Amino acid sequence: MAKIKMKNPIVEMDGDEMTRIMWKMVKDRLLAPYVDLNLEYFDLGLERRDQTDDQITIAAGKATMKHKVAVKCATITPDADRVKEYGLKQQWKSPNGTIRAMLDGTVFRCPILAKNIKPTVRSWTKPIVIGRHAYGDIYRNAEIRIPAAGKVEMIYTPAEGDQAKRVVVHEFKGPGVVMGMHNLDDSITSFARASFTYALDRKIDVIFSCKDTISKTYHARFRSIFRDVYDREFQDRFKAAGIDYMYTLIDDAVARIMKSEGGMLWALCNYDGDVMSDMVASSFGSLAMMTSDLISPHGYFEYEAAHGTVKRHYYMHKKGEKTSTNSMALIFAWTGALSKRGQLDGDTALVDFATRLEKAGIDTIESGVMTKDLIPFADPRPERHVLTEEFIEEIGKKLDALV
Questions:
Q1: How far apart are CA 63 and CA 194, in angstroms?
Q2: What Å distances lie between residue 159 and 76, 114, 155, CA to CA?
Q3: What is the mean pLDDT of the chain?
Q4: Residue 161 — pLDDT band, cuts 50, 70, 90?
């Protein structure tokens, strides 16, 4: 086939460690031979973020707002050990958190299903999509180490007019820690609207859950806004589509979903969505078998894998040891971005190529060729696993036959 020429660019955000290694492999073997890639490149590797005082992350976010579509490799969010390892100026914030706040989006994570990979939760026969609010909570918190006895208060000072409001957080008798979180009505509203729109498009039920019985103001605000958006904008459309919305406490939601067949969108606050998406991905086979799509109500789209940088495999790779690292979620990040670019540009050839690449990946696994992480979940179980490079090459062979 002749190379597909992209009409408009995709913002490419490179990353760290083993995912950075696979990123290049995928581009070289599965993309560049078929697509004349039009990319605006940003290196979000940890060293480059440190060199630019993290301004490269801001620039990548702004470019996404300009071009509408981005694809992102996994990146390191440094802790104290990473600061020492890389000689960093400071513990830089999560690039994902920064970009999500800029785009005001909701993260939707969906497992990639193959017929021969069986979920560990036996009742799950349909995908469970996690809708994760991508703003606020612990990811934009303020926190203090309390060195000794004293009182911590939370104070709201109006920009004009009324007297400040104060509430005591805790009377400390000795050392401890304290954290403050916030959220915005506008962001919660965008989250609710994006969740309902996503579910309506895919004709699946929505469950939203948090803990408003304990958090009678913060979480209660989420519940109230979700109900208001649903009643005003989506109730009639959900009824016509034959789908439902329900709110329930998060502990009840966990119990319900564990016994369900799947096939719903589970909308969650930021931290809850972070944790539960990993649980769902692992249960469906592997963190490397889950997509992560950031969708903004302002028309911005960012696609990435749900997993991290695969640090252990990277250190093996640096020693010259062979790895068996699953690149499926990373491949689906690229196909998501290419497909969305094609949809926005009216480029059916680009959309079709993305669909065929996804099929090549799934066909490869269903033929019994898979990386080590999937072997325990496979039925029938293959005799051997393939290495990182071999897996990508086998997908390439399937793709060659499809195009």
A1: 22
A2: 37, 54, 13
A3: 95
A4: confident
- pLDDT tens for 7-49 read 999 999 999 999 999 999 999 999 999 999 999 999 999 999 9
* Residues 268-315: tens digit of each pLDDT: 999 999 899 888 988 888 889 999 999 888 889 999 998 999 999 999
Closest alpha carbon to 117 in 285, 4, 232, 279: 285
Please, are residues 370 and 345 in contact by the beta-carbon 8 Å criterion? no
Residues 312 and 385: their CA atoms lie apart, in Å, by 18
The structure tokens listed for 114 are 């193959």
β-pairing verdict for 150-156 and 264-268: unpaired
Contact 213, 283 (CB under 8 A): no
Q: What does residue 381 show for φ and ψ, rounded to 5 degrees?
A: -85, 120
Q: Residue 109 half-sphere exposure, CB side, CA atoms within 13 Å?
A: 32
Cβ neighbors of 279 (< 8 A, separation 6 or more) are none
Strand 301-305 with 69-72, pairing: parallel
